[in-house]
Amino acid sequence: MFIGDSNYIKNVIDDVVKDFGFSELVYCEKIKNNLENIFSKNIKNEIEILSLKDGILLIKCDSSSWRYEINIRREDFINKINSFFDSLIVKSIDMV
Q: Are 33 and 71 contacting, i.e. CB atoms less than 8 angstroms apart?
């Protein structure tokens, strides 16, 4: 492995992100940017991802029907997010 190797650079960046505690911030942005891939196209217009802290994903949802849908399918949503990343990223979902 040499310094110009793209895997080396990726590993260094991943290590820096992890060491400085930015992993959840990066995952939160990836969730925001991939809502359509994780769920469906219509959910992107209905919710706003606010933060990810200690495995708790904070979502803003103004629609009572979507709030209800997320609440009854909470485990399914968590599993879809974690499956997308193939890692345990989200442990629970809270809504405001």
A: no
**Torsion angle, alpha carbons of 8, 28, 30, 65, to 10:** 160
CA triplet 85, 60, 65: central angle to 5 degrees? Answer: 100
Nearest C-alpha neighbor of 60 from the set 77, 78, 69, 51: 51
Listed in sequence order, the residues at least 6 apart from 26 whose beta carbon sits closer than 8 Å to its beta carbon are 17
Question: Is-above-0.90 flag for pTM?
Answer: no
Q: Is residue 64 situated within a structural domain?
A: yes
Give the CATH number for residue 38.
Answer: 3.30.300
Nearest 5°: the CA angle 22, 59, 44 is 100
pLDDT < 50: residue spans in the chain = none
Tally of residues, the chain: 96
Alpha-carbon torsion (78, 81, 83, 86), positive or negative: negative
